[in-house]
Amino acid sequence: MSETSETGDAAIAVDRQSPEAVFALLGDDIRLSIVSALGETPDEAVAFGDLRERVGVSDSGQFNYHLRKLRDTFVRKTDAGYELTYAGRQVLGAMHAGTYTANATVDPFPVEGACPLCGAEVLAAYADETATLTCSDCDGWENTFTFPPGSLDQFDREELPGAFDRWMGHVFDGVVAGFCYTCTGRMTGELVADDEPDRVAGVPAHVRYECGRCGSTARASGVMPALFHPAVQGFLYEHGFDTRTDPSWSLVDTARPDAELVGEDPLRLRVRFDQGGETVEATVDATASVTEVQRRPA
Ligand SMILES: [Zn+2]
Ligand SMILES: [Zn+2]
């Protein structure tokens, strides 16, 4: 069962199949083995005979039957042989991401950096597929986000806080670019004024993103879009802060952004960093996009 949807643009053709029909295609050991076997050489198409050998099915007719079921949805035939489609690679990724580590936990352990509120030690932990960074002393600061369980065993324990942080940055990068981290649907952002400025950096607004397709949401400090702008990142880098490797929780504290609302309708947040006699200023607009960036001597 499939339907062709009108996207409003005649040049964009989307052929949609129901999720029930698509997932039913995967309900077979041989078919999942075909996806795995193609994943062994992700950059190379595999000839029919080689693929059948990899999967280990001697009956060519039976193998062909299952391979055809996957065609056009999870597997594509090219002149050189068979390869995974985008959806096929996503299935392969989901098989890796959820394997072995579905119930992974890491007990709280101390990490580099200090609580941005009280200066006490920061603890990292992992449970229920969620990474948590908390203050060991005060209860005023906590940072939580989803981290894929299948990635946990790819790092040593001391590497994990950095990995958590890079993952969060990676997810936020995608969100800022407008892609949902769950379903790759379109995400839109919004700047929201807060009654009380946040306790860490006194920022009077936060940004909120929502996927129009699956409803996933993300929330961050209002200074985050500015921190992801290349002009701001370059400015901070020149002044000794590396937004790729410095813990994000320490950055808001040590780089000390100054943020104030400069417009109510439409809402705008001006974010300023002063370092070494220089200033960079970025304006976050009502859609959580950075519209203006100015750099000048302080
Ligand atoms: Zn604290
Ligand atoms: Zn989504």
Relative strand content = 25-35%
Structural class: alpha+beta
Summed up, the helix count is 10
Outline the low-pLDDT stretches: none
Bound ligands, named by name, code or SMILES: zinc ion
- Read across the widest sheet, the strand sequence of neighbours is 5-6-7-8
Count of strand segments: 15
Describe the sheet with the most strands.
4 strands, antiparallel
What distance separates the N and C termini? 63 Å
What order do the helices and strands follow?
A: EEHHHHEEHEEEEHHEEEHHHEEEE
Principal-axis shape: elongated
Helix share, percent? 25-40%
Q: What's the gyration radius in Å?
A: 24 Å
Q: How many structural units, i.e. domains?
A: 3
Mean pLDDT: 88
3D structure, described in words:
With 298 residues, the chain is α+β, with helices and mostly antiparallel strands. It folds into three domains: 2-98, Orthogonal Bundle (Arc Repressor Mutant, subunit A), CATH 1.10.10; 100-177; 181-298, no CATH class. It is 31% helix and 31% strand. The strands form five sheets. It has a four-stranded antiparallel sheet, covered by helices on one side. Strands 12-13-14-15 form a four-stranded antiparallel sheet, covered by helices on one side. The longest helix has 18 residues, at 160-177. It is elongated and about 75 Å long. The model has no long low-confidence stretch (mean pLDDT 88). The protein binds zinc ion (2 copies).
